[in-house]
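call fold target=Type IV pillus assembly protein
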Amino acid sequence: MSRWRRQRAHSLVEALVALALAAVVLAAAVALYRTQRDAYVASVDAARARDAAAVALTLVAQSVRMAGFVPLDMRMAGFAPLFGCASARAAGDAMRPACVAATDGSDGLLVRYVGDVRSTWPTADGRVTDCLGQGVGAAGDRPLVVNRYFVRQGRSAGVPELYCEGSGRPGVAQPLVEGIERLRLRYRLRGRPAWRDASALAADAWREVVAIEVCVQVRGTAPAPAGRYIDCDGISQTSRDGRRRWIARRWLSLRNTVAPVGATGANQ
């Protein structure tokens, strides 16, 4: 008796089940890839923001630590080491600045100190430098250096940036750090325990500033779902433009302020 071998084919149901399983596996692989990609992008964005905040705080701190410096062998009329503006930037004359309102709500800071070749990096021709590395005065001079820090929208990249205007080229500011969306400043006066905004300080109170709190808010570049963050004022905010935000702060003492004889309670 001869045997007939039957050729068997997959049924339509079996084919559909196989296709469904393949689709599930493919969807899982795509979802895993997207999750890993989003996690990587978020990690890179956070690292970039932390770096930007660290650089911004370091640059401002370098100037603040020099605030009020005068060489021991030099006589100069007393001047306030700092001047600040709340939700505005310092503009105008270096010794009599005014506050110009800022649309982004960022604060502005003006720092004054006497520069020499030891306190700043000198230029190739021996001049002292400002916050942008620009020469101030003539070679061998010890001029008053004035640095002004503020935040505004970048004109080239279109993103917020930390700017500085130095006395090497008055009126010409240059960006320092990209992504800095807000600069928030508070001050502590000699013998006073509370931190105060610039708007709460009288004109003659700037000579009594012994410490400053610097807070920066950084805006991310990677798209992200709407989320909440805590701003520099400690208020919970909602991000509605698809960007993450981070804040970082630093507390700095003014090293070149001298307490009057008999003064107590200064926290330096």
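return ok
Residues 54 and 257 are 25 Å apart (CA to CA). The longest strand covers residues 209-223.
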